[in-house]
Amino acid sequence: MSASQQAFSPPQDAPSFDQLKGALLDANATETATGLANCSDGLDDATPLATWRVRFARLGRVAPRTPLARTAALAPYAGLTLPRYCHEDVIARMAFLLLLDACVPVDQGLLALTTLYRTGSSREQASIMRTLPWLPDAQRFRPLASEAARTNDLEVFAALAIANPFPVGQMDDDAFFQLVIKSMFLEQDTIEILGLRSRITPELRRMTADYKQERIAAARSLPAGVGFILDALD
Amino acid sequence: MKLFDPHIHMTSRTTDDYQAMADAGVAAIIEPAFWLGQPRTHVGSFEDYFLSLVGWERFRASQYGIKHYCTMGLNPKEANSDALAEGVMDLLPLYLEKEGVVAVGEIGYDDITKREEEIFGRQIELAREMNLPVLIHTPHRDKKRGTERTIALIRDIGFPEEMALIDHNNEITLPLVLDTGCWAGHSIYPNSKMDEARMVELVREYGAERMMVNSAADWGQSDALKVPKTAQAFLDAGFGQAVVDRICWDNPVRFFAQSGRMSESESESATIDQTQLFEGNSVLRGQTPRVEE
Fold first, then answer.
1. What contacts A213, CB < 8 A, 6 or more positions away?
2. Of A118, A119, A181, which has the smallest distance from its Cβ to B141's Cβ?
3. What are the tens digits of pLDDT across the range A130-149?
4. What number is the average pLDDT over the span B234-255?
5. Mean pLDDT for all residues in chain A
6. What's the sign of the alpha-carbon dihedral A120, A125, A131, A137?
7. What is the helix (H) or strand (E) element at residue B71, kind and residue range?
8. Chain A interface, best mutation among B35, B116, B138, B141, by max A CB count within 10 A
């Protein structure tokens, strides 16, 4: 059964830095785990944000974009084992970001992650999006998610939208509906938006029906998400 | 055949495009201020971009005999940037006064957020104060509702409809726009938005009044020759030269001349003099300069 067709339950436990590092070791990504440890070495609540940003960039050079060989350690966390994102670099960056958020004051978390996001590569931005739902008080990061939702970078958009607990758990209807329509517009797997079925309303149906009308007028095919939304029973 | 492309982002195109456009009969263009393909992070990035639209880009076009005009505005996507929006709004009164600026644009909705609406409304008000037309981008998603809300906003503010060009129309939004006094733009793309064949059918159904076509060519896969190609499609469909002249020259000139900064005679081809420099820079790289008498 597709992720979006299951009744959505918010994630109960977030992974920790040590758990994610352990997942890397479990998958024999030893060099990446070592690189993560080196990039995180000495970082604490007194570390300036500029230093965190440099180390985050450095992590990208020691954590390759290699699929994780084993993912059993990540199974409890919805979306982390998705083949598209279950790569050494994403998991390493997630661990780093969890550490960063734990070290900065709670009211500085948004600024810290936004700073890394705005000067980040696509892959770094995508990793930040995959991390958002696992941060404490995740609603703090709604402005950053809204900013990311406006991207035209497919990697970043999909990282936010697809099999990610954040949108269904944190976005209001306006933002969530725009995300859904945009996923169809960008030819992403709309049906894999977590919790989509639970968020279908008459307004989302109206937006989808209008989009369907435009596609038909342009003699273009209909994405699978159109039928999923319009055919969903109340 | 003399042609006008009223919406093209030449900052992202090469001189090969300018030469091809000139060869195909494009004599004048409008380059709207827009985003760069990724979000800007400083107000200064906007200012440098604005300066290039009235500076280097205008010069570059002239070197191929094309009159370059532009619009200035805060685009809908970046209107959502709380850190930058006010700084950019502060720049606009200055840059809207520059030579070659003929409208406020491109403005409008992207995700149809409250912030976008606020910035959109303020820019329409600014256009009204400065007696300038507006060039409006309709959203790619939820386009029908975005168009409806655009029309509602224009009416709420009391902006003269004949000074509003609502762009990127399709079969669904065009009748909504033509029911008002606004002008209707259509962006002809290789694989998305509108294409030549569909445009022919729209003109067949709705006529040439207040209709324009553009290439909206930018950094993505787009075609700077879509206006000449659409003009040819009109001729191939049997519409006649008068229809082509109306849609591909007279209508854009008439609309943007409402700014008081463009006239029919001004928008005819620029005289080419490739010995000219802009701030010491030439478009040439060793070629023999072309100079027209």
1. B144, B172
2. A181
3. 999 999 999 999 999 999 99
4. 97
5. 91
6. positive
7. strand B67-72
8. B141
- Cβ–Cβ under 8 Å, residues B286 and B293: no
Taking the Cβ of residue A119 and every Cβ of chain B, the question of whether any pair is shorter than 8 Å is answered with yes
Q: By the CB < 8 Å criterion, does B39 face chain A?
A: yes
Q: Measuring CA to CA, how many Å separate B63 from each of B2, B18, B53, B66, B289?
A: 17, 9, 15, 7, 9
> Regarding beta strands B3-5 and B67-72, do their DSSP bridges make them parallel or antiparallel, or are they unpaired?
unpaired
Which tens digit of pLDDT belongs to each residue from B110-131?
999 999 999 999 999 999 999 9
- Chain A CB contacts of B112 under 8 Å are 174, 178
Residue with tokens 């000219």: B276
Looking at CA atoms only, how far is residue B107 from chain A in angstroms? 16
Q: For residue A179, what is the nearest residue in chain B, using CA coordinates?
A: B111
Q: How many CB pairs under 8 A join A and B?
A: 49
Residues A84-96: tens digit of each pLDDT = 889 999 999 999 9
State pLDDT tens for residues B62-96: 999 999 999 999 999 999 998 899 999 999 999 99
Closest CA to B160 of B185, B121, B128: B128
Asked whether the beta carbons of residue B39 and residue A118 sit closer than 8 angstroms, the reply is yes
- Amino acid at site A159: A
| Beta-carbon separation of A178 and B111 below 8 A | yes
**Alpha-carbon span A127 to A85, nearest angstrom:** 8
Exposure class string for B12-37: b at 16+ Cβ within 10 A, else e: bbeeebbebbbebbbbbbbbbbbbbe
Residue whose C-alpha is closest to residue B201's, from B190, B191, B188? B188
Element housing B28 (H / E)? strand B26-32
Task: Evaluate whether A166 touches A137 at the Cβ level (below 8 Å).
Answer: no
DSSP structure class, residue B246: I
CB B199 within 8 A of CB B186: yes
Q: B142–A152: do the CB atoms touch at under 8 Å?
A: no
Distance CA A148, CA A145 (A): 5
- Run of H or E including A157: helix A154-161
Chain B residues in contact with A142 (beta carbon < 8 A): none
Both tokens of A68, joined, read 């994780």
pLDDT band at A12 (very low <50, low <70, confident <90, very high): low
- Closest partner CB to B141 (pick from A146, A174, A178): A178
Nearest CA in chain A to B140: A185
| Smallest Cα distance from B36 to chain A, Å | 11
* Residue B275 CB neighbours (<10 A): 11
Q: Would you state the pLDDT for residue A214?
A: 94
State whether residue B172 sits within 8 Å of chain A by CB. yes
